[in-house]
Amino acid sequence: MKQYYLEELRKELLKISSLTNKERNILFNELKKHSGGGGISYLELYNIIMKLRKEYKISKIDEKYLKKLLTYLK
After folding, report:
1. What is the pLDDT of residues 22-57, one digit of tens each?
2. Rounded to whole angstroms, how far apart are CA atoms 43 and 47?
3. How many whole angstroms separate alpha carbon 59 and alpha carbon 7?
4. Which of 42, 64, 69 has its CA nearest to residue 53?
């Protein structure tokens, strides 16, 4: 399964203009927790997005753009 590295994901997150800096930091901190020093898989990234949406830490619009990012990375 393909792994996406944190720097690669950080660059992609910066391209999503609807994300605030606070939301980007929340996302990136979650990514760091799950990376374990390696990369993040597609499924892990999907689960992080869903978890943050369920906890209302990201908006519905951001969820939409992050899912587009998932499709792009797939």
Report:
1. 999 999 999 988 887 778 888 999 999 999 999 999
2. 6
3. 23
4. 64
